[in-house]
Specification:
By secondary structure, this protein is mainly beta. The chain is built from one helix and three strands. The structure holds zinc ion. The site of zinc ion (ZN) has 7 residues, from loops.
Length: 63
């Protein structure tokens, strides 16, 4: 998967690619509650982080 160029919406600087992690559904219900109906188990996501304000951006990993 290609690394995207993403700017932080708050700082308007480039966000850093952290990596692709598997998020365990059920422990992250706050964020992914609406996905529970059609996904079970772990959800692979690509994570980006703003080096300044530490905002996190998630993208669901596409196989
Ligand atoms: Zn920021």
């Amino acid at each position: 998967m290609k690394v995207r160029k993403i700017n932080c919406p708050y700082c308007n600087i480039a966000m850093k690619y952290v990596g692709t992690k598997r998020i365990q559904l059920g422990k992250s219900n706050m964020i992914f509650e609406h996905l529970d109906n059609w996904l079970s188990g772990a959800l692979p996501v690509s994570i980006y982080e703003c080096p300044k304000c530490l905002k996190l951006e998630f993208f669901r990993y596409r196989k």
